[in-house]
Design brief:
The structure is a homodimer of 439-residue chains. With 439 residues, chain A is mainly α. Chain A has 2 domains: 168 residues, Glycosyltransferase (Alpha/alpha barrel); 201 residues, Glycosyltransferase (Alpha/alpha barrel), CATH 1.50.10. Chain A is 56% helix and 8% strand. In chain A, helix 2 packs antiparallel against helix 3 and helix 6 packs antiparallel against helix 7. Chain A is globular, with a radius of gyration of 21 Å. At the A-B interface, strand 5 of A face strand 5 of B.
């Protein structure tokens, strides 16, 4: 990528984040009456439902905190985080300490804590809010929630489990994904060694079960022996989810490699065995990066709609009918995750295919999802690219994927510029601290 | 409707039922290896998943039985019913007698009995199979299942209930709908008086809560006081579901009126009080028919896609974003139910608007859903009318809505011809017994 292109991209991403996305959520999502966040917002910011979805509230709390800790120390953002933290502390948990799925505007519980995903976002959100503010209670909430997730993770839906596992037990990719993300986000707040143990175990599941190099596909659900049973869920591919997992793993492996490199450097100064071990680990990680970026590439090729542009939401590996009516719709988060996956793959390999995929996705995003008129991105497009729903936020879309992707990409733009030996690209609005995804 | 048009319609419906729909399911859905029915069938009948969904299995059992009891005494259809009945008897129920949601091909349970809807279809299916065959065990299963539904109906999802009802309790239209349909289908198999009591109570809920004459809409969920809370589910409209409920109610009211008329006729011969009561009930039922057909009309006007044709799947009463990505898709069952609602409304009122709506829907169905190449109807179209999924059956589409609608319409065509004083319209392939929807 030339410096000129790097500057052009960075300018666009900073502008989108600071002039379109952040202002939209700051203006419309803050509930100045009842506290917390409103997420059901029409194209122009008009509220269409006042229910509060705990996991979206936790994601928004995480995002404001992360912007503050990683992008710019803007005091306003801590205040915006605080309204979410206060509301969730007060109303978010049931008597067991599990996080409800939904509350009404005043915080009265509407929907039970029916799986552990609200809890996962609550744990990372309060960890980041603790980093932003030093608030001790938030740290305790984060750690208590994290411990409770570990107790519940073997049965993430508890009494709400409908599947009778003994007949057909499939491993789902959602669990290793969230485990890795949580471990990376909680990071130094966890007991020593825990992060690396969680990361290792879950990378193993993804690389040995879900990524199928021979079939050139990342399967959402796989039998414990790695086979693909003849059923819809056994053939299900979700390109956006695969790309999200892959960039998490790429980030994690490169973070781990850097730590190992530093450790090996130190060890090498003392004895050569340590250096050799470090070298072997580095070779393993290089092979892992090779596998993961290969998977990014075959996921992109298979997931892209070569007729009408954009990535499909769901696909069937055999091209049989998927079990989802919305399979061919184009969703904002899929494309946000794709941007991160391609840019990070390019950063780690330097291969031009990834830059091409990044350019193609960026072009699709800014000509279809971005709404220059009212700010933020549209969420749900028909296959052809027009908006199927005009909302900017809802029960499933909040202040999360878009700003996280913009922040991640801006950080990589800066790293690419630094690696090229130059200063950060122009138009940088922030203080030069690169986005540290892993807290 | 002229006799020529009546004949034309009837010819098309008989041909579609007998040469397209029945052959497709007879050829592809019968599992000659493991018994029971396969429903995940591609456009050309190819199997894409062998799981067995109990409620679809029960619907198919009902349908073969119903064809036999109401359309033609074709021995083959009893055999096809038997394979479903045997499989469901053997594998369908959990140890409490509740019906699993899904089984694998061999009948091993995959998904728990997570609500009562599988049970509702099992009850009517075994009732009809009993009528077709005289099988006592099936009658016992039907009645035991019916009793169990009555125990469970105040909490239809049992331990799977995620909603915390005390915060926002909404009445859903699905429950009165299925109660009325079940009571009408079970009919004379229930204890005396039960059918009329169930019908009365549930018609009351639909007419007093869900049909909102002032707002000219049928609401899917309403607060117990009839108000519409400010939330997505409080504004949800599902035109297909509304039309389905409305034609059930129209059928029920006209069946009840006929019985009352007969009773009043007898009573009138003995004393005049009975005749006066009969007259008052008849006036009430006439008012009910007026209300229900008015609701058919405003549902049609609101639910039709005036730009691209066909009925929307979901809508928001205020035109705000609905909570469903697939809201603007065109679904087969919506249009099957619409055909019945318009034709029955026309039959009961003679008003030309209903005939117009019937013609319009018929035209849409036979130019978009019907697949002359491989038989059966497509299930899921994009807003513009092209197939989003090419499947003919799946997890939610089986041998049910299409043949039921064709059978219902053929019955009405015959009744219209009889009312006009003529013989049944030409091209009748069956024995002239009209379709008796209520068993």
């Amino acid at each position: 990528m030339t410096n000129a292109e790097l500057t052009q991209f960075k300018t666009r991403y900073v502008k989108n984040l600071e002039e379109s996305v952040i202002p939209f959520w700051e203006k419309y999502s803050i509930d100045r009456e009842a506290g917390g966040y409103l997420t059901c917002l029409e194209r122009d910011g008009r509220l269409f439902d006042a229910d509060k979805f705990t996991w979206l509230g936790a994601r928004e709390l995480w995002m404001w905190s992360k912007l503050y800790t990683s992008y710019r120390r803007e005091p306003r953002w801590v205040d915006l985080a605080q309204t979410g933290a206060d509301f969730l502390k007060r109303y978010g948990r049931d008597p067991r300490g599990d996080w409800y799925f939904a509350l009404d505007r005043q915080g009265r519980p509407l929907v039970e804590a029916y799986n552990i995903f609200s809890d996962c976002f609550a744990a990372v959100a309060f960890a980041e809010y603790h980093r932003a503010t030093g608030d001790r209670e938030s740290l305790e909430i984060a750690l208590a929630t994290y411990r409770r997730i570990q107790e519940r993770k073997s049965n993430p839906k508890g009494r709400f489990t409908k599947q009778i596992g003994s007949t057909r037990s499939l491993k789902a990719m959602a669990l290793p994904m969230i485990q890795i993300w949580m471990a990376e986000e909680m990071g130094d707040l966890l007991e020593p060694g825990l992060r690396e143990a969680v990361v290792r175990e879950n990378i193993d599941q993804v690389t040995s079960l879900h990524i199928d190099r021979e079939r050139r596909a990342v399967f959402e659900r796989v039998a414990a022996d790695g086979s693909h049973p003849f059923c819809m869920e056994g053939r299900l591919l979700t390109p956006g989810h695969a790309l999200e997992v892959l960039w998490f793993l790429l980030r994690t492996v490169s973070r781990r490699s850097r730590s190992a490199g530093l450790a090996a450097g130190k060890a090498g100064a003392a004895n050569t065995t340590g250096a050799a071990e470090g070298g072997a680990a580095a070779a393993d990680d290089a092979a892992l990066i090779e596998l993961l970026t290969e998977a990014v590439l075959f996921t992109a090729e298979r997931g892209w709609d070569h007729e009408q542009g954009g990535f499909f939401y769901y696909m069937d590996y055999e091209g049989l009918p998927p079990d989802k009516l919305e399979w061919d719709m184009k969703l904002w988060w899929v494309h946000a995750e794709a941007l991160c996956a391609f840019l990070i793959s390019y950063q780690l390999t330097g291969r031009s295919e990834f830059l091409e995929w990044f350019r193609r996705t960026d072009d699709y995003v800014f000509s279809h999802f971005d709404d220059p008129e009212y700010g933020e991105w549209f969420g749900y497009l028909h296959r052809g690219g027009d908006a199927a729903l005009t909302l900017k936020g809802g029960k499933w879309k909040g202040f999360f994927h878009v700003p996280r992707a913009l922040l991640t990409c801006i950080g990589v733009f800066d790293e690419l510029a630094a690696a090229a030996g130059g200063p950060p690209p122009e138009h940088s609005q922030h203080d030069g601290a690169k986005e540290r995804h892993h807290g």
